[in-house]
Amino acid sequence: MLKKYLRVVLLFAVCLALTVSCKKQEAASTVRQPSPAPARPITIGFSIDTLAIERWQRDLDVFINKVKEMGADVIVQNAGNNIEEQNRQLMYLLERNVDCVVVLPKEATSISESVAKLRAKNIPVISYDRLALNADVNLYLTIDSEKVGEQMAQEMLRRANGKNWYCILGPSEDYNMILIMDGINRIIRNTSAHINHTFYTDGWNYDLSYQEMVRILKSDTFPDAIICGNDAVAASVIQAINRYYPDTNIPVCGQDADISACQYIVQGKQAFTIYKPIIQLAEVAAECAVHLAKHEEINESRFRCSVIDNGFAKIPTVWLEPVHVDKYNLDKIIIESGFHSAASVYKE
């Protein structure tokens, strides 16, 4: 009887153990393992001087589209033409822990400290179109502004009937204006052409460039040619000429191939503009920014590359080539490339 009782107890204990073991296995099988956290998407910060100029709106649109096409996000900061605001916005991008910053500096020497703080956090910085001086930037991307100046001078030599030239440029703190003047002076050095005066338009204020052109028209030395810092400046110059000397042909040039400039070229009011491949520039900037954010090497074989000394170091630089546009090649350069439509250029 005792043996029979012990067998029953033993059988019950075995069954109980098996039941507990099965429940433990079942419980273990229903516990979900935590999924790995999704990778944070690459985020590129773009700090732009201003969007008040047609050119920069186009650059930004192309840049954003290309970055998103590459699977990354963009945070845009518009400084509104203000140095202090641009530095505050760069620190905001630092706080957002972006993976790379592309900056179009308001002033060449104004962002050195902000760049240093970004670089201290291992955030790569690309100087876009304008060179940031005395700053630890990783890369400089631009259209060759010295060649812009050279082409302006070369083409103006073919059109100007006299030697009295004037330059109405952008702000003196825009380093591209210095490079443009270097290019102009290199070409006219051994010619009869003479720059009577160079005016720098503070803050790209087109009222100031208009007033300067009025002053020139009323001066003792009548202008034989006007070289402008961009097409918007050229538009203000043309406005002054149309008001005071509407029947006088004074060759005027600018840069950027704005739609108004292309229309003026067709109408004979502007001699030419310098087209800069800004679609390519913005796309290249987007590609480089994403590659730097991922700590990948940039394929420099696709571009003309060199270095430029910005006062801090010799900065790797990608140069794109400008080309002059007049009424003879406007269709090929501007319309066939899709930069502007024929309908917008030749509107009635």
Which SSEs are present, and which pair or pack?
Elements: H1 2-30, E1 43-48, H2 54-69, E2 73-78, H3 83-95, E3 100-104, H4 112-120, E4 125-128, E5 139-143, H5 145-159, E6 164-169, H6 175-188, E7 194-200, H7 206-217, E8 225-228, H8 231-244, E9 252-255, H9 259-267, E10 272-275, H10 278-293, E11 304-309, E12 314-320, E13 323-325, H11 330-335, H12 342-345
Parallel strand pairs: 1-2, 1-3, 3-4, 4-5, 5-12, 6-7, 6-8, 8-9, 9-10
Antiparallel strand pairs: 10-13, 11-12
Helix pairs in contact: 2-10, 3-4, 5-6, 7-8
Number of spatially distinct domains: 2
Q: From the 3D structure, determine the CATH topology of the largest domain.
A: Rossmann fold
- What strand order characterises the main sheet? 2-1-3-4-5-12-11
**Please, what is the CATH homologous superfamily of the largest domain?**
Response regulator
Determine the number of helices (DSSP H or I, runs of at least 4 residues). Answer: 12
* SS content category: alpha/beta
Order of SSEs, N→C?
HEHEHEHEEHEHEHEHEHEHEEEHH
CATH architecture of the largest domain: 3-Layer(aba) Sandwich
> Which class of the largest domain in CATH terms?
Alpha Beta
C-alpha geometry: globular
Total beta-strand segments: 13
Give the strand content. Answer: 15-25%
Largest pleated sheet: 7 strands, mixed
Report the average pLDDT across residues: 89
Rounded to the nearest angstrom, the distance between the terminal CA atoms is: 117 Å
- As a percent range, the share of helical residues equals 40-55%
* Low-confidence residue ranges: 1-38
Rg measurement, Å: 31 Å
